[in-house]
Amino acid sequence: MTDGPGYYEHLDFNAPLSDWRANAMADRLAPASPTSLLDVGCGWGELLLRIAARVPGASALGVDTEERHLHRARAAARDRGLSDRVTFTNVAGDRVGDVIGGPADVVICIGSSHAFGDTVGEALAGLRRLVRPGGRLVLGDGTWEVRGPVRPELVWDDVVALPSVAELVDVAVAAGFRPLWTDTANEDELFAFESGYLADLEEWLMHHDDAEVRARADEHRTRWLHGYRNAFGFAYLTLGVPDHG
């Protein structure tokens, strides 16, 4: 018997990302035949593993600070026969450069840009140093664009401060990237992500009268459905670093 709710057990990705979109992203990256892949804040490495499976000549490194995520990632790599060239390491974001030893052909950073700076511009400047000229950065980050009623008192301050999709792309261009592809999570992906996150708590509450867990679930659900649902979004940018100039 477990001593608490599950830990992201109902999510394939720790982001509002569907199977079809993840596969499309991986398919767009594979034709360039990258030989080195890096996922910063990889979680359990699902997107990294899908890309690695499409480029048999590539070595891949996923870094994160949560050992429970990394344990799941290593198990998935073994199950898919990828552990000989996909490695997962526990390391803080500001030490990534020391671990990889040089820029990578493809860098993934989804929901972890904060590890490189307090602003999107600072984060992109830090991430750009990890991508070789001619390489790609897959950036996934939250956005804020009001599309309906929003109750500000239910929204965290840092969420309200997020950029719009257009602002995020503009900052990327200013940081020296070329925007090769822009995706945004649709409503189904956002609902699936929030529901999957809450499912660990709600499944636990089906069998346990736990006031603390119930309060956590109720607060998060209220903030989502009555607070930020009509404004919070998530963008996926595939950004290129020019190999000239």
From TrEMBL:
Stretches assigned to the Methyltransferase type domain: 38-137
Q: Which Pfam families match?
A: Methyltransf_12
List the CDD domains.
AdoMet_MTases
PANTHER family reported for this sequence: TRANS-ACONITATE 2-METHYLTRANSFERASE-RELATED (PTHR43861)
The name of this protein is Methyltransferase type 12 domain-containing protein
